[in-house]
Design goal:
- The relative contact order is 0.13.
- β4 and β5 form a beta hairpin.
- The chain folds into two domains: 90 residues; 184 residues, no CATH class.
- Strands 3-5-4 form a three-stranded mixed β-sheet. The protein has a two-stranded antiparallel sheet with strand order 1-2.
- The protein is mainly α.
- Helices cover 62% and strands 7% of the residues.
- It is globular and about 60 Å long.
- The N and C termini lie far apart (47 Å).
Length: 298
């Protein structure tokens, strides 16, 4: 049984067990909370899998399989492309495809050369430029990359576009979407336990309504807001990927300065939940010596 199936199959049984076990008038709420936390931790650990993020070496625990994430992402990507209007600018479209493929090749070579060739099964690269004035770009799990035309006046050159796409590809390679989905599943599971206990103790059905809302909440990879730690990790990995692909990573600093300026005058979805400008530039400067080791001018 895969992790997600395990979660959905046993979360309800576990919640009922918790309610029966805790239906004891002599038990204080402090003890209730302690036992709930312990039981939740045990189940969450038992149904998670641990993997290592390339480049940074960070350990992560995921509650969903690659296949489950890719299936959902592919469905959402296809739905988006049905309504999106592809750019009619042949030159800019070719630019996006060229930069995207260069980065994809660099990532593929890195994974092959570092004992992670099996990860390549998770990618079927595709690059599209769409008609939209937003300053934005994204990469869904599976390597489905979309750039909005509004981004190109800010990137201005091929190397800066590589910085953006390297960042977005890094989210996919690091499986940040799967981590976000896992977090929501953990939150849902915790609420399910809380609902069972609240019902057993006569505390009403408000928590149940919250559970239903969490379950019904749409999870969209395209509009996903990552944590600041994920954004910083994507900056780090993206800088390395751009350098591996033959793009000068030093353009990242001036590019992010332009992005900061653009965000004050127009909607820049790409910057949502990112580190502050000063923090980002300081971090990039710190990673630059590492990135330059990979850089070979094309």
């Amino acid at each position: 049984m895969n992790s997600a199936a395990f979660f959905f199959a046993y979360s309800g049984k576990f919640a009922n067990f918790a309610a029966n076990f805790l239906f004891n008038p002599s038990m204080t709420m402090k003890k209730v909370r302690m036992i709930l936390v312990s039981m939740a931790a045990v189940l969450m650990v038992s149904c998670g899998t641990t993997s290592t993020v390339p480049i940074t070496g960070r350990q992560q625990t995921l509650m969903v399989s690659d296949g489950e994430v890719l299936s959902l992402a592919t469905q959402q990507y296809q739905e988006f492309m049905k309504s999106a209007k592809k750019s009619t600018n042949a030159t800019n479209t070719a630019l996006v495809k060229r930069v995207g493929q260069n980065l994809a090749n660099a990532v593929s070579n890195y994974l092959k050369n570092n004992g992670m060739a099996s990860e390549l099964n998770n990618f079927a690269w595709e690059f599209n430029l769409v008609q939209d004035k937003q300053v934005n770009a994204w990469c869904m799990p599976g390597g489905k990359i979309v750039v909005y035309e509004g981004l190109l006046p800010v990137t201005q050159d091929e190397a800066s576009l590589a910085i953006v796409l390297g960042h977005e590809i890094a989210h996919a390679v690091a499986k940040h979407s799967a981590e976000q989905l896992s977090t929501q599943m953990k939150q849902q599971y915790g609420l399910q336990i809380g609902t069972a206990v609240a019902g057993a103790l006569g505390m009403g059905q408000n928590t149940s309504s919250i559970v239903q809302a969490v379950v019904a909440q749409g999870f969209n990879f395209r509009n996903l807001s990552y944590s600041r730690s994920h954004e910083s990790e994507a900056d780090h990995m993206g800088l390395i990927f751009a350098a591996m692909a033959g793009y000068n990573p030093q353009v990242a600093i001036t590019f992010w300065q332009r992005m900061s300026a653009a965000s004050t005058s127009q909607t820049a979805e790409f910057l949502s939940d990112h580190p502050s400008d000063a923090t980002r530039i300081k971090q990039i400067q710190g990673w630059m010596p590492e990135a330059l080791k990979y850089y070979k001018k094309k």
